[in-house]
Amino acid sequence: MKKLAIFGCGGLVYDFIYDYFKKLDVRLAAICDTPGNMARFARAYAVPACYEDSGELLRKERPDMALVFPADDAAQFGLAKACMLAGADVMCERPVCHSLREGEELADLQERTGKFVMPRYNRRYMPAYVSALGILGGRQGGSGDAEMQAAGPQAAGSGMGASGGGDGGSGSGFGRIYMYNAAFHAGAYASDEAFAVNHVSHHLDLARMLLGEIELRSVMALREDGTRLGYQIAFEGPRGLLGCIQSNSFLCGDYPMERVEICGDRQQLIVENVRHLWHNRPVSRIGGTGAVDFAAAGGTKILNANNAQLDNRTHYGFEQMAAEFARCAGTGERPAQDMADALKTYALVERLQAMAAKLD
Prior knowledge:
Layout: E1 2-7, H1 11-17, E2 26-32, H2 35-44, E3 50-51, H3 54-61, E4 65-68, H4 76-85, E5 89-92, H5 100-113, E6 117-119, H6 127-136, H7 146-151, E7 177-185, H8 192-211, E8 215-223, E9 229-236, E10 242-248, E11 257-264, E12 268-272, E13 276-280, E14 300-304, H9 318-331, H10 339-357
Parallel strand pairs: 1-2, 1-4, 2-3, 4-5, 5-6, 7-10
Antiparallel strand pairs: 7-11, 8-9, 9-10, 11-12, 12-13, 13-14
Helix pairs in contact: 4-5, 5-10, 6-8, 8-10
């Protein structure tokens, strides 16, 4: 059984992330945080050991796995690096680093240590988006799928080994993707950098997951004040795909809004507010009656997670991400979503910031 250490046991870790590990072949070895946070965590869970010093925990406990979610974002890079050097695989809050240079250092450390860092891009594990990826002809897998993931579902020949398809059969039936339009709106962020690395990076990463590698072409910005900002990002994807991401911090955090629309050859995918997916296709008619032939292929397929099932917030992807983290740590396999892959998302964020700076 793998030994788990937690660095930062407040916030999301206390609220629900650690709960997902109780189903896995993982044993909590120790936690590290402020005395107040550790005391609260220990009242809710059985905690074998508490440390205020992360280095002491790593020396004495030698964990196999580390959850790195400190309250201070600036501490994440150093903690992730220390954990890898101590022999632990890492699942980390985003941003795990604040520059491409730091990301490159962690990616290099992955190669030298054989350990990995898994940044929290949980949209990659949300059932609605994973279902969309299957329909498009891609799949999310381990390190053996790296070339396929980089090529994206539009790769020539589309031989992606997907389980989805436009007609419900094997392989990709969606065909060429023409347009990608997405909107991701949230509440205020402390700074432009926090908005870019904590919010916009999620959605650039999601576009990469669903489409393959993209290139930013233009950015427009609208500002209300120092904490509320909006971007309209135009990009180009494989085979000339045209994409647009609107992302802003003008709303209230109580009602964030998220919508992705993908247009293909007489087909359309829509994912709304992470729970709902529509796959729209042409319908077949019965003779000249105008009636729909429901026995034929086509029409609309719907995934709706808004039901009465107690799914432990599965639609947010955290549960699946924790399981993949534990699986890869146990088998020694590199997850598809590791630091080498995240570098491509961080490069897009830096490109966005550079383009936005020219607007000021």
